[in-house]
Amino acid sequence: NYKLVFNDIVDYVSPWHGAIANIIPSSNDDDDVWGVIHEFDKQTAERLTKNLTGSNGIYQLIRVTVKYPDNRTVDCSSFELRNPLPGERRPSPQYLSMVVAGAMQKGLPEEYTNKLKRVVHNSHEGPISLDDKAIGELTY
């Protein structure tokens, strides 16, 4: 019951120079969000939550029910943007490439990764504001 969108939020300048991924509730049966479930120990989960939702955090913690392809379900935590601006925005090509690469690396369905590849980006050609070390820390 969710949809992947790309949003901006008030008073936040993305180091990616474009909109960032977000999930929003959807009543459209054709909408779905594929992803990966990660299990963290309590200390790591608390640190991640604090980093993303703290005083400077741009996300809020939500609970979602994830449905596997075989219809099993599991309750999970996820994050959604706090106070996103109305309407969808465009991600930078660099950010979109990272999202697509992650989906492919984690083995998400080809139909879904192809859908991600069709997202229209904002054509940002300049550098992004993350250094190589920060980008390397985004992978695990």
From TrEMBL:
InterPro entries in the cross-refs: G-Glutamylcylcotransferase (IPR017939), GGCT-like (IPR013024)
From what superkingdom does this record's organism come? Answer: Eukaryota
| Keyword Lyase annotated | yes
Which CDD domains does the UniProt entry name for this protein? Answer: GGCT_like (cd06661)
In its UniProt entry, what is this protein called? gamma-glutamylcyclotransferase
Q: What keywords is this UniProt entry annotated with?
A: Lyase
Q: Does the record carry Glycoprotein as a key word? A: no
EC?
4.3.2.9
State one Pfam family annotation: AIG2_2
Gene symbol?
A: LOC102801350
